[in-house]
């Protein structure tokens, strides 16, 4: 156990579930994803979900996920409003980082909103550095409405969704043309070599990308019609409720017309499969940003964050130069 003053940090148990959900339900005006994933995180063997107690009261929590044995990801750090500014977040962060170092990860990363000044200051003081980011996009329209708008946009641009191919099986192998295109995309370059999935970012490695594509949605739009074709990778959003699955667009890349065609084809499938919502994190000032905004998506903090700046910032801890935290 790790203690700072009277703060104790320990692994979570099912006995903590109700309190974790309570804190999460009072975060982000009740729109936090934690209540959807808390039980999953407590029982998961692919990470460390820790809680902090101050004078015996559970007042915060956070998770270290292992996207692979080499790649650690920090997420879900929350502190009850009544216990903030008392060192709880720092104690949880120290505990999880120590766990990551003991596990021998080669990367340790996390993402946060550009307006989360406290989180940014806390983690930069701990040694994290910014390596990239993107614009978070969502929309109040239903998937059915989005599909209709995407088809209208594609028609206006002279694009043909019927020519888009949904790829499956061997077409999505680690050495397939589609995976090579995903890994060489501007999207991956803008996120420091990671695959965006909302506020979570995955290792941009062939086998990992192939697994995401096989389990998700992968499309290829042909060249022609005045542009260079397009690819689209989407997956079920890990933060969505299990009984109301939501999709996240990981990579949408190519010419404007082809992107519109690929998006229309994907949204048709999302509508058919009962997907409840679709979100995305895309590069700033990009074709995909223009296409998604063209059907009704907006970038949260639209008026407060310059268009060339990310609203989601990705951080990395330089493990090769700093093997442990300061005492």
Describe this structure in words.
This protein folds into two domains: 2-105, Aminopeptidase, CATH 3.40.630; 135-314, Aminopeptidase. It is globular, with a radius of gyration of 20 Å. With 327 residues, it is of the alpha+beta class. The model is unreliable at 321-327 (pLDDT under 50). Helices cover 32% and strands 29% of the residues. It is built from ten helices and 16 strands. Helix 5 packs antiparallel against helix 9 and helix 9 (256-272) crosses helix 10 (287-294). The two termini are 15 Å apart. The strands form two sheets. Strands 1, 2, 3, 4, 5, 6, 7, 8, 11, 12, 13, 14, 15 and 16 form a 14-stranded mixed sheet that branches. The protein has a two-stranded antiparallel ribbon with strand order 9-10.
Provide tags for this entry.
327 residues; alpha+beta; Aminopeptidase; 2 domains; 14-stranded mixed sheet; two-stranded antiparallel sheet; disordered C terminus
Give the gist of this structure:
The protein has 327 residues and is of the alpha+beta class. The chain has helices at residues 17-25, 34-43, 88-103, 117-125, 143-156, 177-183, 186-190, 206-215, 256-272, 287-294, and strands at 2-4, 7-11, 47-54, 57-68, 71-79, 107-113, 129-138, 165-166, 194-197, 200-203, 217-221, 230-236, 247-254, 278-282, 298-299, 312-316. It folds into 2 domains: 2-105, Aminopeptidase; 135-314, Aminopeptidase.
CATH class of the largest domain: Alpha Beta
The rounded Rg comes to 20 Å
Order of helices and strands, N to C? Answer: EEHHEEEHEHEHEHHEEHEEEHEHEE
The total of helices stands at: 10
- Which regions contain 5 or more consecutive residues with pLDDT less than 50? 321-327
Q: Helix fraction?
A: 25-40%
Shape: globular
- Compute the number of structural domains: 2
Largest sheet: 14 strands, mixed
Q: What CATH architecture label of the largest domain applies?
A: 3-Layer(aba) Sandwich
**Remind me, CATH topology of the largest domain?**
Aminopeptidase
| Total DSSP E strands | 16
């Amino acid at each position: 156990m790790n203690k700072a003053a009277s703060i104790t940090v320990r692994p979570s148990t099912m006995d903590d579930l109700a309190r974790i959900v309570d804190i999460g339900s009072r975060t982000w005006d009740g729109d936090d994803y934690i209540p959807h994933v808390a039980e999953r995180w407590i029982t998961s063997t692919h990470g460390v979900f820790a809680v902090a107690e101050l004078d015996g009261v559970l007042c915060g929590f956070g998770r270290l996920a292992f996207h692979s044995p080499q790649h650690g990801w920090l997420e879900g750090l929350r502190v009850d409003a009544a216990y903030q500014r008392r060192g709880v977040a720092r104690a949880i962060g120290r505990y999880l980082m120590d766990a990551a170092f003991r596990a021998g990860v080669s990367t340790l990363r996390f993402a946060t909103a550009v307006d989360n000044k406290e989180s940014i200051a806390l983690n930069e003081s701990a040694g994290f550095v910014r390596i990239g980011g993107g614009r978070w996009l969502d929309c109040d329209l239903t998937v059915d409405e989005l599909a209709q708008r995407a088809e209208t946009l594609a028609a206006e641009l002279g694009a043909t969704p019927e020519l888009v191919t949904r790829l499956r099986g061997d077409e999505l192998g680690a050495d397939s043309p589609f995976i090579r295109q995903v890994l060489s995309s501007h999207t991956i370059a803008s996120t420091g070599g990671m695959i965006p999935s909302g506020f979570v970012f995955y290792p941009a490695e062939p086998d990992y990308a192939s697994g995401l594509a096989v389990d998700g949605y992968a499309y290829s739009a042909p060249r022609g019609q005045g542009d260079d074709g397009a690819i689209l990778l989407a997956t079920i959003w890990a933060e969505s409720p299990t009984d109301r699955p939501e999709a996240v667009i990981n990579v949408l890349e190519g010419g404007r017309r082809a992107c519109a065609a690929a998006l229309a084809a994907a949204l048709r499938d999302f509508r058919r499969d009962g997907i409840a919502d679709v979100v995305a994190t895309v590069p700033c000032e990009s074709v995909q940003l223009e296409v998604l905004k063209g059907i009704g998506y907006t970038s949260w903090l639209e008026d407060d964050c310059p268009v060339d700046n990310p609203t989601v910032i990705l951080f990395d801890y330089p493990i090769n130069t700093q093997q442990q935290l300061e005492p």
